[in-house]
Amino acid sequence: MRWVDFKESLSEFWSDFRRQKSGLLGLLLLFLFIFTAVAAPVITSPDIPEKWQGFWLDNPKNVPPTWVNAFSSEAKASHLAIEGEALQKLLTKTDSGYLVEVEYNNEYDVPPQDVVIKDLTGDAAGGKPSITVIVERPDGKKITLIEGYKFSGSLVLQLGTHPEVRANLIEWIKSEGIYIDPLQEFQYRTLMDATKVIFGQLNENILKNPEPLKGTYKFTILVNVPEGSSVSFDNTKVIFTGRTYGWLGTDFKGRDLLAGIIWGSRVSLVIGIAVAVASVLIGIFYGVTSAYLGGWSDELMMRFQEFMASIPSLPILILMGAYFGGHIKLWQIVVLLAIFGWVGIARVARSMALQIKEQTYVEAARVLGAGTGRIIFKHMVPQLLPYAFAQMALSVPSAVLSEASLSYLGLGDPTAVTWGQILHDAQVAGAAVNGYWWWVIPPGLSIALVGLTFVLIGTALDRVLNPRLRRL
Hints:
By secondary structure, the protein is of the alpha+beta class. The protein has helices spanning 3-17, 21-38, 40-43, 48-51, 84-88, 163-175, 182-191, 194-198, 257-293, 295-309, 313-323, 330-341, 343-357, 360-367, 372-380, 385-408, 419-428, 431-434, 437-465; strands at 80-83, 91-93, 97-106, 114-123, 130-136, 142-150, 153-158, 215-224, 230-232, 237-241. Helices cover 53% and strands 14% of the residues. It starts with a helix and ends in a 7-residue tail after the last helix.
């Protein structure tokens, strides 16, 4: 085909396709998915696949997205981590060591889960460094949360659960003239939610049912460094562990579910498109070859096709997963889905090829001495390309759903970030039972949206390329 003819055909196709509003919507969604998949390392972080299986210790566990505060009567604290250059700007060198002053604006009804000082590294060559943390509240009260706590190596100090912090809070409350029942004091020392007390109003209910005290809190961190010793703030973080996080919340490992959804789009698109292309090509060539050969060859090939069609694919895939040690790698999923995905396409392609076989140009090619391969690939298969393109688009959703089903059942690749694997982890952790809707709905909607995208494109292609379905 000449370039001029190809360009004219492409222009005519686009003129017809753009009249299909559903097809244009499908293309828009497809471009959005492709952009998300390609830009995943930039949008999130390039090391997400490597660290996905571990615990994200800096993040809160099982918390909803931040935007739920807009629909709730009770505002929950969002996650805040101060590190890198932001922390270095708050660092001051003193005669005895270092001083860090961190301001935190508490505008929430429910304060942070914890206040964590993490990865402060100390060298105890001349004696162990020590750390003191003082908080100044909006009401003017100052509390020494921890004083002279010695450390060496890498320090992780969780103020919300540290026994000394709880003890100091109780002593502070007593010093303010508030009575504490001696019989309950031990319980408060072991079970107190320290952060709610730190960020709570000073009254008789501060231990039983603290009310939020809103305003700006100033945390002063004093690090005393003995002569001959040293400390490093290069990797230090001050984390106000939120009760909400990001756009899609976190799971039981503290993983950012938005990052998982974004990286999962890569796997879904690759698997869906690869399986669709492979299964359609196999089905087209198989069906056309069967129709052209005819006779006993056609009969034998169709009986094999019927045998393959009678095999339930999902149970076989489950058995194959057990055979491969309980997990199927992504490339194995592509191969297995392609093996079972071509059978229906082959029968339709055969019925279409039987009509093409009787066309004059096929007879002319045979008379002129063209071989079987040339007739099939040169004269018959190109006539089925419109059907092939439409079928490729329509085959993607089933491939995506099959991969998600295998991963949900725990048979997928556990090292890959996929939507099915996220749903599997949610099911194992009882997310639906515990009300962690942000862990279940986004991956489910993503799978449905990918399916809708290719159904819209495939239906539009079918209407454009199939003359009997064209709308006048």
